[in-house]
Amino acid sequence: MKMQQRGMLSIMGGLLCVSGISNAQDTRNSVLEEVVVTAEKREQTIQEAPVAVSAYTSARRDLIGVNTIEDVARITPSLSYTNNDRLSIRGFGRLTNNIGTDPSVALYSDGIFSTSMADTSTPSLFIDRTEILRGPQGTLYGRNSIGGTLNVIAKRPTKDFNGEVRGTFGNYGSWRTDALLRGPITESLRFLVGGSKDRREQGFVNNLGPGGDTADSDRWMVEAQLEADLGERVVARLRYSKFEWQDSYGVGNTLGSVISPYNNISLSGTGTSALYYNSMFGYTEPNPSVADPYTINTNSAAAGTLSHQHRIHLDVTADFEGATLKLLSGYQQYTYFTSSDSDGTPRTAPFNIPVPAGGTLSVDLDGPAGPLPSQTIARPAFNALNVTPDARTYYHERQQWQSNELNLSSNGDGDLQWIVGLYQYSQKWDQPQGIRVVGDPAILHPVGAAPNPSGAFLAVDGHLETDSYAGFGQLDWSFAERWTYTLGLRYTKDKKTGIDMARYVARTPGTAIAAADAPPTLESAIIGLFPVGTPLSFIQTQVPTVGPLVAAAVLAQTQALALDVTQSQVCGATACAADLQPNPGGGLRRNLAGDWDAVTGTTGLQWAPNDNTNMYLRYSRGYKSGGWLGSNGLTPNPYADPEYVDSYELGVKAVIAARVQLNTAVFYSDYDGFQTPLTVSLGTITASRFLNLQARVQGVELEAVWSPIDRLQLLASYSYLDAEITRGCCFVDTADPAALAAGARPVSTLPNGEVAQTLVGNRLPLAPEHKWTVGANYTWSFAAGSLTASGMYTDTNDQQSTIWSNPIYTAPSFEIADFRLLWNDAENRYTVIGFVKNAFDEIGYGSSTGGVPTPVGSRRTVSLTYPRTYGMELQYRF
Question: What distance in Å separates the CA atoms of residue 139 and residue 52, rounded to the nearest whole number?
């Protein structure tokens, strides 16, 4: 089937990758037209910019159907994305969302830094263009752009009155309405207002249980702008945006499909769920996701909610003789919540778990100081009663940040172009998360500890405050005809302070046994069987007889108890580290702080041998702030040093015979300090620690467009990534502690029997070796209007989701095909679009992760691509 798909689409001329080339706004005219971008913070055509950049205009997005960040990532060379809001360019990405960490790809909305990629999913009606800059952008953008930068440029108010309304409907009960109106208020004051409402009433993840289908959505947004001429030289714009949504499969959601069998054998949970009895124990129905990852069977619905979001943006531009002064100020806040069914079953009624006999209990009637020797008795079997099968994850994120940039740039046509600027950024961030159970009062009231009203057996939280300051400058000197030399520098100072908290409350066979075995529980129960005054020496002789009976009675009581085990989980049998202090609400907390600074920059040479060719050679140094893994369980050594990258890039951009546009880039990068989380054992559970590794990334990117005739456009892109870890040893893969899986690189056996591996030679995560997209669009013209057919086909190689080569972490290669048909009337007043996305209903995984081994194997969780969707859209302009 896949070969047939390839053949059919190859006949079409291949599918569409958007490079920096755009058609005219009217899709009836299919000749090449250059797009103006601000990749270097000044207006240039893509062909002039000495950087690898792709751009998507609003018209281009409509033509090919780029609606979401997933679409952008799928058709852009060297770009990868997973739906938990993690983006990677050329293998430089973010592998955890834990508080204290930073992205490696920066998103700027109208020049204002954002911590989330959600802006790239804004409906195309409100966006002028989206730019993707690949490679370190540390000079002009700084702020964690070590892998690259996404620039989202919104539409602005206009001097003429105009508007547009759109309506879309499709399968899964999907519909969306958009409206935009803009124009003058006075000669010097202009406005823009708009809004969007987007619904998917039926989820595409079918739930056989009572929790309801998953992946439905309800989103809305509003946008308002005022732009004013403050005299002849100054323009100021105030922009306000607000988004809210309920979307269980949208940006930032951690919902995944578990495609491995239920572990219905273990008495306790595993991994992060090891602090409670196994909520899947004894469940005999098969997991439907094994056969179909889009089918689940749960009692609770997945949730993903964005609320309290506000964004305010102010930009002021003042043009003077020879220079332009710009102020960019912004503030944003939001609250995000997500939840999912942790056990993955539909059960809600409490059940019992029989714990078989085994091991021994100690009895020391007169204590360690007394003369009587300690005895041991066989530990009898017992039943854990009223265990709840209803376990749920929860994740809250509350963020607010503001930034200011003031830059001064040349605006003439001289041989020397320059820009200098100052930058400030501050952020506050809270991130409570964990796993809770519903219906077990023991977890709410751990013995001898503060109440636990959330019902969470694993609860972590963190608070972060960040302050960042930078100064930058760049000059471009045309020292000879067709030759330009570039030099840029940036100094950045980052400071972070925060609090890290964790509480662990356990109810397991181990806690029942530990509570029974803790002196003097068992001893007091045995002594209480005999009359007061009975000599202990006599009772000592009766212990072998009465001890097992008393132990059974005691275990029948302790099985119902929950204990706060934070200290033993975090500190073990030794005293806790000095930085760990009791948390007022239970558990432990610590303060974290760090500051880092760096000088980054770029230098390069650009040669334009003719008007249609641009060649550049560029070196860039990138930096990402150090940090820590907060809200992650109080693992030892939470800190990580900064990341640095030294990148070398050779690029060629050419237009041939006014019909072919070809942009290529060859690059090599040394990646020092690559920050990655590593899952490790923490007591009986698993948590993560932070590592700094070293890697090497090299590759090739190609983007091409050819219009053999005016009405036909053929496009193609390709990226090759050789992204490999070059330093990192020796660590244990918790999903493969014996290092037996394919791809394992064992180096030594540890005292506990686990096998440590080297990471050297493993691929960087989210870095598929090959990725290509081909496409075509053709326009037929009629007296009444024009009809354009377009198609796009993308093939993405398999990619790792973590630093391990274990196949359980591999997202297999997948192929996606989209088709669209657009009708424009002769006056370009309305457009009718028919579309189908993922036309062949291919199943693709954005990521794949694995848990610790269980009797039925490791638990594998994958994030899914969207299934086949189709529908129609109507646009009307006035």
Answer: 15
Burial class (CB in 10 A: 0-12, 13-18, 19+), 722: middle
Rounded to whole angstroms, the Cα distance separating 714 from 793 reads: 12
Buried b (16+ CB within 10 A) or exposed e, 807-845: bbbbbebbbbbbbbebbbeeeeebbbbebbbbbeebebb
HSE-up of 73 (CA within 13 Å, CB side)?
29
**Chain segment 296-353, per-residue pLDDT in tens:** 999 998 889 999 999 999 999 999 999 999 999 999 999 999 999 999 999 999 999 9
Element (H, E) at 354: strand 351-355
- The amino acid sitting at 26 is D
361 DSSP β-pair partners: 377
Query: With b meaning 16 or more CB within 10 Å and e meaning fewer, what string describes 162-182?
Result: eebbbebebebebebbbebeb
Q: What angle do CA 787, 788, 789 make, to 5 degrees?
A: 125
Using CA atoms, how far apart are residues 400 and 840, in angstroms rounded to an integer?
41
Query: Which of 327-353 are b and which e, b meaning 16 or more Cβ less than 10 Å from the residue's Cβ?
Result: ebbbbbebebbbbbbbbbbbbeeebeb
Give the three-class secondary structure for 557. helix
- List b or e across 469-482, with b for residues whose CB sees 16 or more CB atoms inside 10 angstroms: ebebbbebeeeeee
Measured distance CA(326)–CA(534) in Å, rounded: 91
Burial tier of 66 (Cβ tally within 10 Å: 0-12, 13-18, 19+): buried
Per DSSP, 90 falls in state T
Rounded mean pLDDT, 282-296: 96
**Reported pTM:** 0.90
pLDDT of 78 above 90: yes
pLDDT at 11: 30
SS3 assignment for 639-700? EECCEEEEEEEEEEEEEECCCEEEEEEEEEEEEEEEEEEEEEEECCEEEEEEEEEEEEEEEE
Name beta bridge partners: 49. none
CB contact set of 404 (below 8 Å; sequence gap of 6+): 327, 328, 329, 423, 424
Q: Which one, of 695, 810, 798, lies nearest residue 146 by Cα?
A: 695
